[in-house]
UniProtKB/TrEMBL annotation, chain A:
This is ABC transporter ATP-binding protein. It comes from Bradyrhizobium jicamae. Residues 6-238 form the ABC transporter domain. InterPro entries: AAA+_ATPase, ABC_transporter-like_ATP-bd, BCAA_Transport_ATP-bd_LivF, P-loop_NTPase. Transmembrane segments: none annotated. Keywords: Amino-acid transport, ATP-binding, Nucleotide-binding, Transport. GO terms for biological process: L-amino acid transport. One of its GO terms (molecular function) is ATP binding. PROSITE patterns: ABC_TRANSPORTER_2. Belongs to the ABC transporter superfamily. Involved in beta-(1-->2)glucan export. Transmembrane domains (TMD) form a pore in the inner membrane and the ATP-binding domain (NBD) is responsible for energy generation.
Automatic annotation (TrEMBL), chain B:
This is ABC transporter permease. GO terms for cellular component: plasma membrane. InterPro entries: ABC_transp_permease, BCAA_transport_permease. Belongs to the binding-protein-dependent transport system permease family. LivHM subfamily. It is a multi-pass membrane protein.
Length: 245, 291
């Protein structure tokens, strides 16, 4: 795919002797929301770690905007324009909300307009502005996710890797978080998301990727993945390969 | 009866020194799970480094500078690279035990290569008394207190008001996420070790004129700092400061009003009470660990 912002080619790797990724390959079209789904243990989060240089790969390549970024440091990846929002709580509980956000720009070289960017971000998220001087631990789960997204966006990334943004959030907050992602996509940011909540995630996505046992099983338009009869089966415990064969 | 004000000031002065040592102690714990049981010996050594430089003929000011630089090198960089990094891989406990071994090694080395006797050490604060509100207070105590407070304030400002400080706190509070957003975690950890080395060197410079330079002086100091850190809250810098001041004052008042023999027991009693009734310390937050 020529308009791919990210190309993942034949990743092999895992933890210790355990292999999680068995030649995972896919590409992420630029300016889209792409959702990775798959059963537990499929290697979804591991792929993200591999892309973001947090997992030593035995084989394979990660290509971002045509450049091989395999094994780069997190600082280099951030500067290249990739940002990663992992699963769960990713804040610094005892720093203020504002200080938490500000830390999103530690790798930035041009600090000049940083205060303006932070103000702009706080304007977009009134809850965060209201609590800007409070300890981040006082935020609710949804507010913490917002903080993480805002922090990640300070560097104006072109690709956002976001892992299970809906986990632990109320349905309303899930909708809000998804709306933020849609807005980002409309501004031209590419988003690669992992979601357990496959149906609602695919509904807002452009593309869907199905992972199983560390391999890519299906890459298609989101609506087609959503309506693929094999998907239900996959999530109900059946192996997709059997049905596909 | 002793002069209560003077006792308080003297207590706060030693307490401020304990606080310096305790702050370094908690910083090491927070950023790299290092429980440094050699922290007392870390305070003992810089004075000897400075004395050695002076014996070589250098003036006091130069000895101070070289002593601090040597501390940064040995107790900061060397400690991290040669002991903490290799041992931490095996767990928190093996590292803690290794620091106990280091403490014994440092003590014996100083006894062997320097002297088993206590040596006098010059004070950077001139001797004498000042009169405040009609009370006579030792200039030494006041000077120590002022210097220690200045350093603590400086450190607090560094931690809370600067980007480097925020990055250090981020590293302590959530190293995985810190790395993900681009904080140079390794460099921040090293910086913590250097700050600790600076703090112990300074504490050494301030306390040795009072207690003399002796190979065994780290035992008392390490214990005081350890108690201060636990009493204040093991995971909080401000807790360590409060704990240090409290131990200093309690210790001094106990010596004057209870008994000199039992003065060392009083902080211990305080420690037991705190552990029983408020295990997270006065200002600490409870820590959860998944097993």
């Amino acid at each position: 795919m020529s308009d791919a912002i990210l190309d993942v080619q034949g990743l092999v790797g895992g933890y210790g002797k355990m292999t999680i990724l068995n030649g995972t390959s896919f590409s992420v079209p630029a300016g889209s929301i792409t959702t990775v789904i798959g059963p537990n243990g499929a290697g979804k989060s591991t792929v993200f770690k591999a892309i973001f240089g947090l997992l030593k790969l035995r084989e394979g390549k990660v290509v971002f905007k045509g450049r091989d970024v395999t094994g780069l440091s997190q600082r280099e990846l951030l500067n290249a324009g990739i940002c990663y929002v992992p699963q769960g709580r990713n804040i610094f509980p005892e720093l203020s909300v504002r200080d938490n956000i500000q830390l999103g720009a530690v790798v930035a070289r041009d600090i000049a307009d940083l205060p303006a960017r932070i103000e702009a971000a706080l304007d977009k998220f009134p809850v965060l502005r209201k609590k800007a001087t409070q300890q981040a631990s006082t935020l609710s789960g949804g507010e913490q996710k917002q903080l993480e997204v805002v922090r990640g966006l300070l560097l104006n990334p072109q690709l956002v890797l976001i892992d299970e943004p809906s986990i632990g959030l109320s349905p309303l907050m899930v909708q809000q978080t998804f709306n933020i992602l849609k807005e980002l996509r409309d501004r031209g940011v590419s988003i690669l998301m992992i979601e357990q909540n496959a149906r609602s995630a695919l509904e807002i996505s452009d593309y869907g990727i199905v992972l199983e046992l560390g391999q890519t099983r299906l890459v298609d338009k989101a609506d087609r993945v959503l309506n693929d009869p094999r998907i239900g089966q996959l999530f109900l415990g059946g192996a997709m390969t059997e049905t596909a064969a | 009866m002793s002069n209560l004000l003077d006792l308080l000031v003297a207590g706060l002065a030693t307490g401020a020194i304990y606080a310096l040592v305790a702050v370094g102690f908690t910083l090491l714990w927070q950023t790299s799970q290092t429980i440094n049981f050699a922290q007392g010996e870390f305070v003992m050594l810089p004075a000897f480094l400075m004395l050695a430089v002076m014996h070589a003929g250098a003036p006091f000011w130069l000895a101070i500078i070289l002593g601090i630089l040597l501390s940064l090198l040995l107790l900061g960089l060397g400690f991290k690279l040669l002991l903490v990094d290799p041992m931490l891989r095996h767990g928190v406990l093996p590292l803690a035990i290794a620091t106990m071994a280091l403490a014994i090694g440092m003590k014996e080395a100083v006894k062997q290569f320097f002297s088993a006797e206590a040596s006098p050490f010059p004070s950077i604060v001139p001797a004498g008394d000042v009169s405040i509100l009609g009370r006579v207070i030792s200039l030494q105590s006041l000077g120590v207190l002022a210097l220690a407070i200045a350093v603590v304030i400086g450190l607090t400002l560094l931690l809370n008001r600067t980007s480097i400080g925020h990055q250090m706190q981020a590293t302590a509070q959530n190293p995985t996420v810190a790395r993900i957003i681009g904080v140079p975690v390794e460099r921040m950890i090293l910086l913590t070790f250097l700050i600790n080395a600076f703090l112990v060197a300074l504490a050494s410079l301030l306390i040795t004129p009072i207690y003399l330079a002796k190979f065994s002086s780290g035992e008392v100091l390490g214990q005081a700092a350890f108690i201060a850190a636990i009493v204040g809250g093991f995971n909080q810098v401000r807790g360590a400061i409060a704990g240090g001041l409290l131990i200093g004052v309690v210790d001094n008042l106990a010596a004057a009003y209870v008994s000199t023999q039992y003065r060392a027991a009083v902080p211990m009693v305080l420690l037991i009470v705190i552990i029983l009734f408020r295990p997270q310390g006065l200002l600490g937050r409870p820590e959860e660990r998944t097993v």
